[in-house]
Design goal:
Oligomer: heterodimer
Number of strands of chain B: 8
Strand order of the largest sheet of chain B: 1-2-3
CATH architecture of chain B: Orthogonal Bundle
Radius of gyration of chain A: 16 Å
CATH superfamily of chain B: Cytochrome-c3 Hydrogenase, chain B
Shape of chain B: globular
Number of helices of chain B: 12
Number of domains of chain B: 1
Structural class of chain A: alpha/beta
Number of strands of chain A: 6
Shape of chain A: globular
């Protein structure tokens, strides 16, 4: 199997728009935006691809940090940004289509912002 | 400007096997805007990594989808193997390709049947599903499962296929090819089907690319993206032909899937010829510590499993980005300007899988 060469560059949230603009200008497509809770912080990965060349930029923020929407450059980002809001509770500013928390309806509000489940020995649930 | 009205489409609709809701903003019979809404069957699969060991989570990953379950399982396993730097035996890599391509055959035939049903061609629907039964029989004979195979695991595969069985499968593909040729000739050449699908739901190459279309939805607009070209599994040792069409309409997306049936049977034949003898799995010790974005070509397009581990047996994160999720924005573009009566056919032309999308 040929492993894919992947790069991830960490940036400040203030440089997000400028960095995404570079990808847009160079003709990359947006592959996905994904969020991961690491302790009290959230890592948000923005993944791009052009001619099978895969690149990520990453911002690390606290839960109440407002993230600017990239939907001005990638119209399709609203799918991921609404998901990020509905599952993690990350506020996103300036989305082109803002579902205001109704894109993914869940019984538990912001389920992925909840503390991780701890499994004890003998737990079969 | 005439008066605008909003017509709800779904979540329950005859062409939708699964629930998605679209608010169609109409001027007379013309769709001028579309607002999609999902979230009816969100299952929280990704959250389950916190309480299922990484070796067991493959069963959860497989259940993301009831059509391309094998591809989800294999993609997850390959992602973990990349993090843990596990060298999977060659025979297992070829077996994964064979089952992945059978999954593609099964998925495309299922879709062709449903698509025929959406424009009222019941006989064609039944013929497509008749051939699909032969594919499912092979899946059942070789893995034990028709829908959920359970044959993939971290470090390899659980079951081998004997050389005699592989030869018989390759030989049987000649008959299946003949049946599929007969079927796809109707899809590609019948004048009533062309009349129904040509110039309907058009999306340009530029829009498809910039709006994130993947799989046959992208390739139907001439965007030659196929993640099998990355060479994961044994694909780097096989000749993968990327099928594209240029018109970007429903007919083009249908034609891509019809032609991909034959590239899949060709890949299975190549794999059967090249598959080496040897073990099918390797003992896995330790736990994943690191992260990887594993990309694979699901029947509907590029699938991404982002996996992050911290050295314990429970992953920190499993994030699944399915092709249907990223094909929703292009779908909105296709629907803008179409006639209300064309909406069901256009929606189905992206082969939506909402269970995958919702996870």
């Amino acid at each position: 199997m040929t492993p894919e060469n992947q790069t991830t560059t960490s940036i400040d949230v203030g440089k997000l728009i400028g960095s995404v603009e570079r990808f847009r200008n160079e003709g990359y497509r947006l592959v996905q935006i994904g969020c991961t809770k690491v302790g009290d912080l959230y890592e948000i990965n923005y993944s791009f691809d052009k001619d099978y060349h895969f690149e990520n930029i990453r911002i690390t923020i606290t839960g109440d940090t407002e993230v600017p929407s990239i939907s001005g450059m990638y119209w399709n980002s609203f799918i991921y940004e609404n998901e990020m809001h509905d599952l993690f509770g990350i506020p996103v500013r300036g989305m082109n289509i803002d579902f205001k928390g109704t894109f993914i309806r869940t019984a538990v509000k912001y389920p992925f912002s909840q503390p991780p489940v701890t499994v004890t020995k003998g737990d079969k649930s | 400007m005439s008066k605008q009205i909003t017509v709800p489409f779904g979540p329950q609709h005859p062409v939708l096997p699964e629930p998605i809701h679209l608010d169609l903003v109409l001027e007379d019979e013309t769709v001028v805007d579309v607002i999609p809404s999902i979230g009816y069957i969100h299952r929280g699969f990704e959250k389950l990594v916190e309480k299922r060991e990484f070796t067991d989570y493959v069963y959860i990953a497989e259940r993301t989808c009831g059509i391309c379950s094998f591809v989800h399982g294999a993609t997850y396993c390959q992602g973990i193997e990349q993090i843990m730097k596990i060298d999977v035996p060659e025979r297992a890599q070829y077996l994964r390709v064979i089952w992945s391509e059978y999954s593609r055959l099964h998925s495309h035939l299922l879709w062709l049947g449903l698509f025929a049903d959406s424009f009222g061609f019941e006989n064609l629907f039944m013929n497509a599903w008749k051939i699909r039964e032969d594919i499912l029989d092979v899946m059942e004979q070789t893995t034990g499962g028709r829908v959920i195979q359970g044959s993939c695991k971290v470090g390899g595969v659980r079951r081998d296929i004997s050389d005699e069985k592989l030869d018989a499968m390759a030989k049987d593909l000649d008959r299946i090819d003949r049946d599929m040729k007969e079927l796809t000739t109707v899809f590609l050449q019948d004048s009533s089907i062309q009349h129904r699908l040509r110039n309907v739901g058009v999306i340009s190459r530029g829009d498809a690319y910039h709006l994130g279309a993947v799989g046959p939805t992208a390739r139907g607009s001439g965007v030659a993206i196929d993640t099998r070209k990355l060479g994961y599994g044994a694909y780097d040792r096989l000749n993968v032909q990327v099928v594209t069409e240029s018109c970007g309409d429903c007919y083009s997306r249908c034609a891509v899937r019809a032609k991909e049936l034959f590239t899949s049977t060709d890949l299975i034949r190549q794999a059967v010829k090249k598959i080496p003898d040897g073990p099918i799995d390797i003992k896995v010790t330790g736990a994943p510590d690191g992260e990887y974005f594993m990309r694979a070509e699901q029947p509907r397009g590029e699938l991404v499993h982002y996996l992050k581990g911290n050295g314990t047996k429970f992953l920190v994160r499993s994030r699944i980005r399915t092709p249907t999720l990223t094909n929703i924005p292009p779908l909105i573009k296709m629907l803008q300007g179409c006639e209300l009566a064309d909406v069901p056919v256009i929606v189905l032309s992206i082969d939506p899988c909402i269970s995958c999308t919702e996870r």
